[in-house]
Design brief:
By secondary structure, the protein is mainly β. It has strands at 3-7, 11-12, 18-25, 34-41, 48-54, 59-61, 69-74, 79-84, 93-101, 107-110, 114-118.
């Protein structure tokens, strides 16, 4: 059974860096050809894809967030992480991690999501 679990601070101050980790169980994040994604949903808005780290460690980012976003992984812990710098209250959202099979649209496993609020 594949499971994803987000973790990290629920409150971040403006201008600081938001850091979240997704812990994966039931499969390895290096398994071909899966990709590991960060997605967020601001209050009252739709889902926004933020970026991805693939099974081979390659990364891709939403162009609108690319300058502030970094995704990395720890294969020993089977985790991947998100860092979003220079946050503002507009970055307040529920943040999700999710798995997708390369070249097959649609996420087959999601974390439960974690609320992050940006406020002083």
């Amino acid at each position: 059974q594949v499971q994803l679990q987000e973790s990290g601070p629920g409150l971040v101050k403006p201008s600081q860096t938001l850091s979240l980790t997704c812990t994966v169980s039931g499969t390895s994040i290096t398994t071909s050809y899966y990709t590991w994604n960060w997605i967020r949903q601001p209050p009252g808005k739709g889902l926004e894809w933020m970026g991805v780290i693939a099974y081979d460690g390659s990364t891709f980012y939403n162009p609108s967030l690319k300058s502030r976003t970094s995704i990395s992984r720890d294969t020993g812990k089977n985790q991947f992480s998100l860092q979003l710098s220079s946050v503002t209250p507009e970055d307040t959202a529920v943040y999700y991690c999710a798995r997708e099979l390369e070249a097959t649209p649609g996420y087959d496993y999601w974390g439960q999501g974690t609320q992050v609020t940006v406020s002083s």
